[in-house]
Hints:
Order of helices and strands: HHH
Helix content: 55-70%
Strand content: under 5%
Radius of gyration: 24 Å
Number of strands: 0
Largest sheet: none
Distance between the termini: 53 Å
Mean pLDDT: 83
Number of helices: 3
Amino acid sequence: MAVSSIFHHVILREPEEIEAFIRAAEASMADPYPRHEGPMYKVNTDPENTRRILELNAKRMKAKNENRS
C-alpha cells in the first residue's frame, strides 16, 4: 500500500529519467539500511573553542532575557 502511494506521484517520461529511477531503486534494494561511516558527532577538546561557545551561549541568554523584559 505504501509503495503504490509513492509510485502514484511519479511521472517518468524521458528514458534518462527512467534509468535514473531504476538505478536509485536498485541501489536502495542493495543496501536498504546504509550505515554511517565514522563518528556521528565530533567531541570538542579545544579549551579555547569551549570558552567561545560558553561566552556565545551566555550572550544569547542575556539577550533573550533582556527581550522578555
